Amino acid sequence: MATATLPNEFLKPLRVFASLRLTVVCLGCGMLLIFLGTLAQVHLGIHAVQARYFQSLLVFWSPRGADWKIPILPGGYLLGTVLLVNLIAAHATRFEVSRKKIGIFLLHLGVILLLLGQLLTGLYARETQMRLDNGQTLGYSEAPREVELAVIDVTDPSFDQVVSVPEEVLARGGTIQNPTLPFTIGIRRFLPNARLTMRAQEPNAPVSLATTGFGPNVVVTELPRTVKDDERDLTSAFIEINGVQGSLGTWLVSNAIADRQSFSVNDHSYELIMRQRRFYKQFALTLIHFEHDRYAGTDIPKNFSSRVRLLDSERGENREVLISMNDPLRYRGYTFYQAGFDNNDTTTILQVVKNPAMLLPYIACGLVGLGLLVQFSMHLFGFVRKRNR
Amino acid sequence: MRKSRSWILWLIVGLTIVSVLAPLAQHDERDGFEMQKFGRLPVLLNGRIKPLDTVARTSLLIIQGKQTLTIEHGEMTAIDWLAEVMFKASEADRRKIFVIRSPETQAAIGRNDPAEKYFSFLDLSSHLQEIEQQADLAQKVEAQVRSPFQRDIIKLFERLTLYHRLQNTLEVAGTENFKAQIDDLLKNIHPSQVPMNSGITAEALQSLGFLAETGYFFPIPPVPPNDDPLQWRKMGESVLQFITAGDLHPAVSAWATMASAYAANDPAGFNAELDRYSDWVREHFPNRVHKAGVESVFNQLEPFYSAMIIYLLIFILACGSWLAWPQSLGRCAYVLLVVTFVIHTAGLITRMYLEGRPPVTNLYSSAVFIGWGAVLLGILLERFFRNGIGSATASAIGFLTLLIAHHLSLDGDTMEMMRAVLDTNAWLATHVVMVTLGYASTFLAGFLALTYIVRGAFTPSLDRATANSLARMVYGIVCFATLFSFVGTILGGIWADQSWGRFWGWDPKENGAALIVLWNAIILHARWGGLVRQRGLMVLAVFGNVVTSWSWFGVNMLGIGLHSYGFMDSAFPWLIGFALSQILFMLIGMLPLHTWRSQLEAPRAPPVREMTKVSA
Amino acid sequence: MFASCGPSDDSKITVYRIPKETAPAATPPLNTAAGAGPALEWSAPAGWETQPASGFRKGSFLVKGADGKTADISIISFPEQAGGLLGNVNRWRDQLKLAPITNEAEAGTPISVAGRDMFFVDLVSAQPVTPDGAKSRILGGIFPLPGETWFFKMMGPDQLVEAQRDAFKQFLGSVRPAESVAPATADNAGNTNAPTPPPIAPAAGAALQYTLPNGWQEKPLSTMRRASFNAPDPNGNSADISVVSLPGTAGGELANVNRWRDQVKLGPIDEQALARSAEHLQANGHDYLMVDLVSAGPIGDPPEKQRIVAAILNENDHAWFIKMTGPDAAVDAQRSAFTDFLRSLKIP
After folding, report:
1. Do A117 and A73 share a domain, yes or no?
2. How far is A166 from chain C (nearest CA, A)?
């Protein structure tokens, strides 16, 4: 590195970031992070680990029960960023562009794209699910691990107007005012996970915050968020509706309760419900048939597939599509994957993914493969030629 | 090479080939029954049509842990045993095939004699209810936290269940003359939608229902020309079909005739019916029969088992070549390595043909393939360097991986059906093969580095030239490993993206693959950056063994993740032991040079000169 | 509107218009962290095929009719009241294209299960709702428990479901709190992943209860009989006694008697003859049809007079066959023991 030429004095500070030593340290930290992250999955579950280890700047540790924490490792975002800077700096300062370096160059470009792709995916991709019963048509998908408070104006006989308040806003608390609503929504209490029991079963429980709806009859007990991959939280909140005249009452809403609660303000009828967050699409899918093949004489699944009808009045689409394992439907930026099934094979569960960075890994893979191949075959041929001489 | 030793070389090679092919010459004709032919009959089990011989071998493996049964006078093959289990229950029930070592499990069956470890089904039959009860209790505990006794009793119960189901597959165990029963049905039954109205006795109906429920494999093929695997039937199902719909499947009476002839000790009758039925299935299901035949020959030859033993021999020869007769021993090892590689490859291709799949489909086949890949690379190294190192390391990995494969095969049939998400040959052929080759080359680099450290530290045999060539080998193989594991891992991401829209999900198996890529990248960058020199490179490469064994086996022991193959507690101490041994070798590799037996002065210039230009 | 800190609109309140929803919303899977509610157990009637319980189904069965039609039985639990009795009954009514009801009292008939109230629902569609033109029927049991409500539901063609009504009620009656809490996790060991490996111990499920008559020996392992005995006499002969039960009503009384007659080389008889010759034995609250058959002359090897004494019972959709066979002398010696045995036998 002593021989590295600096084309520009301006690049000097970059040399610090360009060192191979930094590369090796970053890669080493990456290994440690991944290893510890894998071990942590046993107790934390894959989702918590992703958030804590890989989609974070720093990984913190705190002893059981303590309320302080110390950073022990750089998180995935930080490491990825440093590696990116390191790579770019190295190319800016150390590498001269030559035919001999073309392999390394391609390879590193691929790695840069890979890192960028993962960063973009972490920030922008959204995974939701669509559950379709036989014959059912849905125009929306649901977030499996996120709720929303839907305030639905059902006054108009031809349509519903929905105001959707996402979980993040609910968790922040405070008061919500929306120009389309003639009232404010005060969040009295938000419980990320809770158990609901009938008051009749627990006569000694303290009086509920709720004053109207079915809330007063229900006892709500807060629970820690679940870490298991196959469970989800039952989220609840107490919300107070305040009109111009004052409070209309406090309701309990929870995604454990499928019924809507209604009230009216200014001759408008509203309904309240807490449910899995919905994402409406410009098109709808109808499940025609779900098929589940097994291998002869076993319960080992051989294939799952869903025959669905795709309806898009905007674009005039109306066609049948077969979605099966390893063969998704891609439409208008969404990809629908066969993810599961239910109800004795009469319900299909589709994973709905929107990922603007979807193509980057494909390009990266090509570049990395090509780069490695070029570089190593150059060495190999050089080596063989030398031996044969 | 001098001529005098040349014939010895060829003699050794010839003897090896003969010993590998020897099993073909054996002909199993126990007491006049054509058992070998019997073993080739196709049946369906676990979604795959396979020869009865495979069913016999895997069942005996599961129940007893070995593929043959030692009896008072000599040995019984698996198919002999299976025939006895199915047709002569009273004799089979006396065979002491159930091994119970745990004193607690012995207590559960009312025994406490530590010397007595082998039990027959008869010994255990009076305790079936206790065993089932205990196993039921143990089943309710989560698999990861079961005590050794709980695991043992569940295992025992599973083995007993398997035995019991095998016994009640073709006929209800203890039936004396099944053929007569079938003939009786044919004579007296008026097929009817409502079975009870067909004139069948309640007891016969119950026994058929029992057969249909309990039977282990599916012996009755579809009605020709239908060849749908879903249409294979259990014995009881097929006869019940006859009761309700008429038309007895010809295979039913064929199996029944064989059963009765075997029970009556009538080899001539048995063989005649066997010939007739074999011809019938061959005529109607030629492809199935051909595959079953190939599989049965494959079972008989056990190519991976012979290859394992020859690899051990090669390893000894190649190590010997560093001490004496480097030319002849080295050449002998090399030729044998090539021959064994051919055997290994033939086995691999046969498996691919039988399964209709790329080489790696489960943990077992990954072990076979890692060995294959490492040996292939080792042969190439040996061609270039001709110093016995390629042969020694390749044969060592070949031996160890096939040994691991052998132990993995004790769980039963190694050709399982692929679960839906894995059922794509294109990805199995690219992603899985690439990643497995990545494992193989990382292991090869690690073992080459081990050779360097062991020869350098414990023997005077590591001279400068050998050391330099080893360094070149390790470097080259690490490059290969990086290529394979990097591209393989990204392909895996793309597969995941295709299948469930997630390029990278931080699943343990994915993380394991990433660790290998990162570690290889670290080795290369440390080398390029001059952070390590020759010995440092070796120490780093040895750690590659730890990283690879973690991602190959360790992540499966976490018991979580989409890729998990099941809980393998027994292998855990071995993995820890292996990792510790590698770390010990790394420490030895870092000892001051003067403590090493080989005299290696520090190299003046980095030996892999041409590679350092990267950071010019 | 609220300021967002994320790069996407993830944390913003959104307003949109959608067409009126007609069908109730899809209920997401409910495998809840909070759902440590009571677990239940039940016994499935004979003839119901267990289906893999997937997703939020706690249990699932299939019943096949003679014509190949099937009815589906599902067991589901939801936290809390899950929409209340009325709401759920109306959901079911909707599936059968029946108009909703408003009076909760009409929703279901309370029955007592495990000491609590369960609501039994029986709905049949007015019109065919499936393409095959048959009416559909739903039998349901709604079981409100502390913290959650369980739904037991059988749905299928009217005829088939109607025929299964008693079985379904019996099934509802079998619902009880589970004793164990830990779920049995599937163990993917070895090769035993074929569907439903049967138990190896005989007569799994409810064991038979009886008093063993003097001189009878229980046979150690008779896998397919409910019970099996041997009664030797001093001459080295012995009578063989077996107890067999089969699901379904035995329309085959006559067929069986004729098969037995055939075994002792007697000619077949018809229904009238059977009715005429049949004796009945009242024992332990059951009404057994008794059969006693002796061969006309010595048969078999060695030639001996053979005899069959048997009892047939139709009860609870099960046919029971208790049968004693053997040489005439040996069977005759055990006749009274056989009757004693029947008197002591408790049919589960």
Report:
1. yes
2. 6
